[in-house]
């Protein structure tokens, strides 16, 4: 679900969802910047913004164009963007080096700024690795002068993490996906650890600090630069008398998010309608944070039950000045959400709540087998001019596979089945890694400018069709071709091959073999 913040001066920040305002920390007390990447798309140099070093996107993405956004008082992050006008590209990917198995919060930021001369922003999808994450539609926020951002928490399945933009059925003709900023921030292992990140990701729906009506907080208050919006309603507000960093708070909410709380009188139920917008019917991760607001003492505690939409969420929660967190890792929600806190009969004071987070649970869409990913990346590097969308997952999502690549999906893994770049104008050589695509049936690369020798592909037991005609291959005709068990056609004409045709190949029946024309071979 998208969230927003003001594009220009933060003094005008009045918005219904997550917002962002970060005070520039004093150099003398500034915390270390959060670990990760802060990428300012389209920028030409590194720039410190609110104490965080933002770097240009060069080296993280192939292709695309840069546009400057000229608007009075615009935030530095929003002053440039990168857009992708190529109508043939199935996706446009940023690829980030990460640590396999580690957990990251990924944030994408969008401010249209009329970069293409239009009146409304393009609508498109964003993809993380092989999973379609969400649709990017910034129209409503842009009309209100706001920027839109999206967040997701994922665990790295490999040594790289890809964030991609792709047109969808709602993208208008001639429109270009665009992006202003991309953040990939490392999280601690304990954070949100009730989620099985091998199968799921968490997409941020709401993150609020209750009892506050001012601007949102982020870094340096939150060392992970999460955005905590203020939330206030008709319930009484109390101020907490101590900072806490409870070891039970696995998600490390910042103390500044817990300094106020919503409460009610002794013996009364506390009702909080949060978040303030309707939720789609699906499963969510809910984390709620509590602290008794009074000065720490043996008497600073309170006990109550928690219900979410009239269903028991937690029984007999004992909240002290040390603080406590409760969570639901697979909680069904739909429409409005009401959190009800019911005090125990002997509780000396009424219930209290300080902060909360809600994430939509996103099933992962699988991944391409690592062996095939490595092979395809090596093949891409061996081409001088690979298709611009040859970054990210080669196969997934299936509708956004690399140009010329068709895959078979079995369970949670995809395999490359067909490579067809006929007459694409590809130059370079054919990598030895082609021989590692052991599920491939068709290799069609005729009509290009490929040079060098035909690499060893004797392991390709599924290969039925090899078309390499009309290139500039040199060297001998490989003998392994006769040993391919399922091969039915081999097109090698109009190259610069030389030497004899292997006897085993000439004697093999059932193959459409096309070699002599344009080659210096001995039949």
From TrEMBL:
Q: Where is the Malectin-like domain?
A: 39-361
Write out the annotated subcellular location.
Membrane
Q: Name one GO cellular component term.
A: membrane
Q: Which Gene3D superfamilies match?
A: Galactose-binding lectin, Ribonuclease Inhibitor
Membrane topology, as annotated: Single-pass membrane protein
**Gene Ontology molecular function, alphabetical:** kinase activity
* InterPro entries in UniProt: Leu-rich_rpt, LRR_dom_sf, Malectin-like_Carb-bd_dom
* Protein keywords: Glycoprotein, Kinase, Leucine-rich repeat, Receptor, Repeat, Signal, Transferase
According to its UniProt record, where is this protein mainly located?
A: membrane
Q: Which PANTHER family match?
A: LEUCINE-RICH REPEAT (LRR) FAMILY PROTEIN (PTHR45631:SF45), OS07G0107800 PROTEIN-RELATED (PTHR45631)
- Its name, as the record gives it, is Receptor-like protein kinase
Organism whose genome encodes this protein: Platanthera zijinensis
